[in-house]
Specification:
Arc Repressor Mutant, subunit A; disordered C terminus; Tetracycline Repressor, domain 2; mainly alpha; three-stranded antiparallel β-sheet; elongated; 2 domains
């Protein structure tokens, strides 16, 4: 938990919004979780719940973005790194008994369509995540246009697993059924399904398939 009152309030918001949703989380509960005076929430977030929830989304987005270098910096093969991200998401869900889902997707699905500050915050976070992941694919030699086409379904598939409360939905579906194909102008191709990424470099590297 954060060391300052403001950080503790944000951390409490991340936890409670993720587990209880926007409507199910009250400001008094956040203050209690943060061990902070109730009035301090409005001191730091005068816009109330809307302002706090938007900051929670951005803070969680920054924290989750750190997972990209964590997986990709330690594994030069982007196919393996993507698979590891899927496995890590599933393990987190199981370890938390499906309580620790993605706080950003939870809020986005619940109220972002009717709450403009949240809509903007979630859009900014998802856009940055997609760019960060696409940069990893580009660094691996995939055409920039194809890289974004790979990053978007990869990101959403990982989020689907983090938001699911059903173990059955964690089981990968066959790429032949759900896969999307992209190919760069230079001949490099990638294919990603719900849990499958293959990268075929122009140099003739062997295709990597993720476990199905």
């Amino acid at each position: 938990m954060g060391s300052t009152t403001r950080e503790r309030i944000i951390d409490a918001g991340v936890t409670l919004f993720r587990r209880q949703g926007y409507a199910g989380t009250g400001m008094k509960a956040i203050a209690k979780q943060a061990s902070a005076p109730f009035g301090s929430i409005y001191h730091f977030f005068p816009g109330g719940k809307d302002e706090l929830s938007a900051e929670v989304v951005r803070a969680a987005g920054r924290a989750y973005a750190l997972l990209i270098p964590m997986f990709f910096d330690s594994e030069p093969d982007v196919a393996v790194a993507t698979r590891n991200a899927f496995v890590g998401a599933a393990q987190t869900l199981r370890a938390s008994d499906y309580a620790d889902a993605c706080p950003i997707a939870t809020l986005a699905l619940e109220v972002a369509s009717t709450n403009e500050p949240l809509r903007i915050a979630t859009a900014d976070v998802f856009t940055q995540w997609t760019r960060d992941m696409a940069d990893r694919y580009i660094a691996a030699g995939i055409d920039s246009g194809a890289a974004e086409g790979l990053a978007t379904p990869a990101l959403w598939s990982v989020l689907e697993r983090r938001c699911s409360n059903s173990f059955a939905q964690l089981r990968p579906r066959k790429a032949a059924r759900d896969g999307a194909g992209v190919e760069g102008a230079d001949g490099r191709a990638g294919r990603i399904g719900d849990s499958h990424l293959s990268v075929d470099h122009a140099a003739g590297r062997t295709e990597h398939g993720l476990d199905r």
